[in-house]
Design a protein that fits this description.
With 150 residues, the protein is mostly helical. The chain folds into 2 domains: 4-56 and 137-148, no CATH class; 59-127, no CATH class. It has helices spanning 4-11, 25-37, 42-52, 56-60, 62-75, 79-86, 91-101, 104-113, 118-127, 132-148. Helix 2 (25-37) packs across helix 3, helix 5 runs antiparallel to helix 6 (79-86) and helix 6 (79-86) runs antiparallel to helix 7 (91-101). It is elongated, with a radius of gyration of 17 Å. The mean pLDDT is 80.
């Protein structure tokens, strides 16, 4: 099992390669197994773990980013719009709802601030084609692995 205490700092620290936080080779190998099962390529895992770390949106996961955005959006909009938007947590449905509500630019800016380019965001949201690790986030995949004892 991955030592939770040692890895906890890395999980909450975007743009920090875990090898810079003292992760040993066994921890990295266990993490790689978890992330490959969640759809991450070996090359992406290698570059993120050893060199550039993960963007904030990758750490949180798209599901959490949408939920966080909806919470902020709910504070700034009418109750009718808020209820409508909350029902649309499927990526393509959520994107369509944003289009209908004229909120694409606002959401795109929010995600760009978290490290996801507008072009990639549009393509992924329209097609709903996030990999498991992108949808659940690095932190979610890691915590699931710790919980299951992998």
């Amino acid at each position: 099992m991955i030592e939770e205490i040692k890895m906890a700092k890395w999980i909450d620290d975007p743009h920090t390669p875990i090898t810079k936080n003292g992760a040993d080779a066994d921890d990295v190998a266990r993490l790689q197994e978890l992330f490959l099962k969640s759809g991450m390529s070996k090359s992406k895992f290698y570059s993120r773990v050893n060199y550039i770390g993960f963007d904030e949106w990758e750490m949180r996961g798209m599901r959490q980013c949408i939920e966080d955005y909806v919470a902020v959006y709910n504070e700034q909009t009418t109750m009718e719009d808020a209820i409508y938007l909350q029902k649309a947590l499927d990526p393509s449905e959520f994107w369509q709802t944003l289009c209908e509500r004229g909120a694409i630019t606002q959401f795109s800016t929010y995600m760009k601030d978290l490290g996801l380019s507008v072009t990639t965001l549009r393509r992924r949201m329209q097609n709903g084609d996030f990999m498991d690790w992108e949808w659940d986030g690095v932190a979610g995949v890691y915590r699931r692995g710790v919980k299951s004892g992998e």
